[in-house]
């Protein structure tokens, strides 16, 4: 992240829409599963089943968060590569 920010400064840019992507809506199947687990947990009366659904919900949320972070890392790596290429082109032109 620091490397990407440093490259943005070198290129005299303040920000990027790619870097600002929070990944919301990127994994609709996972988000639907989480909503379904939440609804099932709210309907459930049995404490053991409710606790089990809560643990499944937590696991699903953690898995979704990991996917979102992996996606963000991939986007950042791509952006860093683009910025390095652009910086090398500017250096060669100068």
Describe this structure in words.
The chain is mostly helical. It has one domain (2-93). Helix content is 77%, strand content 0%. It is built from 3 helices and no strands. The longest helix has 47 residues, at 47-93. 1% of the residues are buried.
Q: Approximately how much beta-strand content do the residues carry?
A: under 5%
Q: How many β strands by DSSP?
A: 0
H and E string = HHH
Rg calculated over all Cα atoms: 20 Å
Number of domains: 1
Mean pLDDT: 84
The tally of helices reads 3
Shape: rod-shaped
In whole angstroms, how far apart are the ends? 27 Å
Q: Which stretches are low in confidence, meaning pLDDT under 50 for 5 or more residues running?
A: none
Descriptors:
mainly alpha; 3 helices; 0% strand
Describe the structure concisely for a colleague:
With 94 residues, the protein is mainly alpha-helical. It contains three helices and no strands. α1 (2-10) runs parallel beside α3 and α2 (28-43) packs antiparallel against α3 (47-93).
